[in-house]
């Protein structure tokens, strides 16, 4: 029997109309701040943030809130990213998400919090193995400003840190992918990581964070992205392209999206919202509409891959 996903895919492939395009949002957050503790969303003063003032997202964000914003787009499945939950309880968010899924059907999969250089890493990964929702984990490696980065950078907690890498080495046996959020100038370390552990899939978050929109900055981002793309075990999420105090637009972000797809290929990219975080800089309707507009010239099967099929396969939805 065909599933509802099959029916929607076929409808879109026949019509080619973006209004029929089924979407898997490959990276978003849910949080209930009345019940759960996310330090960066609850504590004062607020932390420095790349989009500036983020007070607007320091409130509950649950499936009903998400889907109210997602209309009129056909979001059929979602992948929840860990939201910097209380680090003293790394398993708590996945347990909460499991109850949320049981109650309302979302999220369909998630990435769990982990601290690869902590003593509890093996215990946490063992628990994630038994949680049906968890497909990947995230630990943002130590990073520095581009002006401070050197070819020998190997700070504690970085991708070259022996203790961090020892935790990372456990992922393959646990069947877990790794979500990498780091600025593009750290991709030299990411290439080493990908090549040293070819059995672990790395999913680059937020397009490699091309925040420097100067000609030189974007060329450096493209060069770093192209080097990382030589590693067959790396995938790319196209998301997180907001700029502080600059309206999100197709004109600003279209060239970056098209470059990313050209570098990694349609088959290794997927679109994601990063909501509610990116609501600081863009409306969800504008974001999905913008992504659709940017790739409107691609064939229906290619658009379906970017918005639905690649994430469905990668996260086993």
UniProtKB/TrEMBL annotation:
<protein>
    <submittedName>
        <fullName>Y4mH</fullName>
    </submittedName>
</protein>
<comment type="similarity">
    <text>Belongs to the metallo-dependent hydrolases superfamily.</text>
</comment>
<dbReference type="GO" id="GO:0016787">
    <property type="term" value="F:hydrolase activity"/>
</dbReference>
<dbReference type="InterPro" id="IPR052350">
    <property type="entry name" value="Metallo-dep_Lactonases"/>
</dbReference>
<dbReference type="Pfam" id="PF04909">
    <property type="entry name" value="Amidohydro_2"/>
</dbReference>
<feature type="domain" description="Amidohydrolase-related">
    <location>
        <begin position="24"/>
        <end position="317"/>
    </location>
</feature>
<dbReference type="InterPro" id="IPR006680">
    <property type="entry name" value="Amidohydro-rel"/>
</dbReference>
<dbReference type="InterPro" id="IPR032466">
    <property type="entry name" value="Metal_Hydrolase"/>
</dbReference>
């Amino acid at each position: 029997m065909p599933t509802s996903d099959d029916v929607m895919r076929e409808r879109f492939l026949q019509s080619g109309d973006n209004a029929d395009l089924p979407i898997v949002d490959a990276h978003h957050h849910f949080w209930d701040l009345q019940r759960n503790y996310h330090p960066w969303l609850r504590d004062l003063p607020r932390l420095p943030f790349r989009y500036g003032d983020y007070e607007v997202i320091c409130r509950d964000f649950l499936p009903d809130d998400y889907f109210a914003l997602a209309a009129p787009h056909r979001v059929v499945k979602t992948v929840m990213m860990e939201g910097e939950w209380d680090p003293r309880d790394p398993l708590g968010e996945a347990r909460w998400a499991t109850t949320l899924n049981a109650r309302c059907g979302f999220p369909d999969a998630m990435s769990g919090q982990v601290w690869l250089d902590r003593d509890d890493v093996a215990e946490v990964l063992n628990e994630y193995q038994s949680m049906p929702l968890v497909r990947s984990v995230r630990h943002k490696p130590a990073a520095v400003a581009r002006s401070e980065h050197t070819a020998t950078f190997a700070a504690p907690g970085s991708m070259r840190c022996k203790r961090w890498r020892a935790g990372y080495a456990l992922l393959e046996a646990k069947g877990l992918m790794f979500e990498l959020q780091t600025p593009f100038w750290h991709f030299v370390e990411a290439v080493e990581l990908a090549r040293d552990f070819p059995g672990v899939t790395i999913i680059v978050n937020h397009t490699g964070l091309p925040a420097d929109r100067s000609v030189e900055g974007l060329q450096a981002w493209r060069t770093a992205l192209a080097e990382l793309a030589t590693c067959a075990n790396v995938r790319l999420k196209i998301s997180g392209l907001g700029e502080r105090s600059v309206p999100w637009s197709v004109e600003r972000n279209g060239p970056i999206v098209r470059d990313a797809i050209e570098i990694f290929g349609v088959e290794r990219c997927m679109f994601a919202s990063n909501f509610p975080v990116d609501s600081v800089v863009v409306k969800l309707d504008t974001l999905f509409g913008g992504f659709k507009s940017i790739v409107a010239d691609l064939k229906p099967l290619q658009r379906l891959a970017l918005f639905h099929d690649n994430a469905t396969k990668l996260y086993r939805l």
